[in-house]
């Protein structure tokens, strides 16, 4: 049966989308059937696969608000085993429209219940907030994977995220667990990066992945070519480390 992993951190720019796109691609390349759900109105995961958001008619919004079945909206990516439920700007309205809808926190969970035998993994790229889109993601998920950028104030805001996770556990989704914490944009030349790794390991202990994602220019270039890094530059460090992370995630099963 499917494992649903929400990639969440309410801070922007920490590597959620980069991790969602490249982890999904690597899991698929390793033979898993994967659906990537873009639930961020910015739609960066969608454009990261080369899709033009303004040309898409339907998106995650329709699964949440209009009960449109996910299989009718999935699009095939350039990776065989990987499909995408895209985001368009329409999603920006969902946060407000959901407020008035019955069972507003469980809309995504209900939609995913109908496809749970179709995939090995569903990866959800969350927006940088703890609003209803992220709550829907956490409610639909088996686990949450948190990217943390190796920078000053790395741990700031994480207690808020963990509080939200335990509120969702208590009230909406008792099976939700912390999948793991992945350190991103590590720069071995700076003491700060090394310090942050120590700090995060002290705090999250065995929940921190062995794989640390370094700063890698190929990872930042790939989205503008509409490709995950394993297609854009398969020999890059970025491709190597996201394969390592995918193997760790599979190994955790
Ligand atoms: P989020 O989804 O959390 O807002 P992104 O994944 O979009 O964060 O990353 C923010 C920016 O940093 C993007 O421009 C992205 O290309 C870049 N980036 C992310 N991870 C790396 C990395 N390991 N090396 C270099 N650039 C990165
Ligand atoms: Mg993002």
From TrEMBL:
Residues 3-177 form the AAA domain. Belongs to the ParA family. It catalyses: ATP + H2O = ADP + phosphate + H(+). This is Sporulation initiation inhibitor protein Soj. It comes from the Bacteria. Dimerizes in the presence of ATP but not ADP; ATP-binding is required for double-stranded (ds)DNA-binding. Interacts with DnaA. The lineage of its organism: Bacteria, Bacillati, Bacillota, Negativicutes, Selenomonadales. InterPro entries: AAA_dom, DNA_Partitioning_ATPase, P-loop_NTPase. PANTHER family: P-LOOP CONTAINING NUCLEOSIDE TRIPHOSPHATE HYDROLASE (PTHR13696), PARA FAMILY PROTEIN CT_582 (PTHR13696:SF52).
